[in-house]
Input
Amino acid sequence: MNNKTLSCLAEKLERKRDLQDEEFAALLEEDLPGFSQELARRARVVREKYYGKGVYIRGLIEFTNYCRNNCLYCGIRRGNEKAQRYRLSQEEILACCEEGYALGFRTFVLQGGEDSYFTDDRLEQLIQSIKKSHPDCAVTLSIGEREKDSYARLFAAGADRYLLRHETADRAHYESLHPAEMSQAHRLQCLRDLKDIGYQVGCGMMVGSPGQTAACLIKDLRFLQELQPEMVGIGPFIPQADTPLGHAPAGTAELTLRLLSLIRLLLPKVLLPATTALGTIDPQGREKGLLSGANVLMPNLSPASVRKKYALYDNKICTGDEAAQCVACLGQRLSSTGYHLEIARGDHPGFQTIK
Ligand code: SAH
Output
């Protein structure tokens, strides 16, 4: 295929927000020189149409690394006896929010393993206290699979958004990355329940996870078309030495960047982070992600003392810094991109009214 044909395909994707499988495959796999740059340029035009040059920041609080699940790729899986477990108290979490607010964060993302200590009652209390102290901020949860009535209670308590990556839309691939006790059908049902309740919902996949093929990625893109999530989180798979997949090769920045551009064209208004995993696999990964269509950054707000313990994968960046350092560093990094950090809740354009 030549560059002209590929340009036509990109243009068609932008216009129709749909393609045939073979066309998606061509956009994913073609390595003609300059083509990724062209896709990135198109993605930037779309991103700037809806979001200008602003980059939303979300303060990520990794509040527990206890997890009842045993995902084969994840460093905080229950079977990893080397993981040093921790759990932040409500006071510690509120202190992170306080510090984050002063730094300009207007969204707090509570992420953790599936920790049964955090019952609906405790989470409800936590969400209500954050909302009481910071009524102008959004609370995003990223705490895995729960039942619909639990999601509904947390929404009623004030949670605005929910991140739950689907990890892979291909069933056999999902089963190869997870123990038999986990079910893809349940995870996908969770995403539909969250949508139904009224959350701004984020799904997403790891890029280059062991066994992933172009056909898996096409299924992922089709799943995004179907779910129409408000947010999509993608990042390269990075092996964690103490997991069963600790020796598998990592995913690449190149494929992640290309997917970011394709996702921007497929879902023009989506909130799309340039993730920490992308910044880990490539020192300029986050800047490149923003220049490929991403419009969100999620700096770490967790207390420095626990950062290294939330080791989903090896060599994670920013585990030594204070939150303020991370924000200053990102601000500087952004200056090379022409974008700037924006102090705002940064809701999806379809959700502009505060609850
Ligand atoms: N327990 C929550 C949060 C999981 S951690 C949940 O189930 O949603 C957040 C994300 O980190 C996961 O969804 C996964 O996509 C990613 N992740 C986990 N291990 C990883 C690895 N080894 N490399 C890259 N990303 C990883």
Summary: The pocket of S-adenosyl-L-homocysteine is lined by residues 73-74, 111, 113-114, 142-144, 164-165, 167, 206, 235, 237-238, 240, 277, 312-313 (CB under 6 Å). The mean pLDDT is 97.
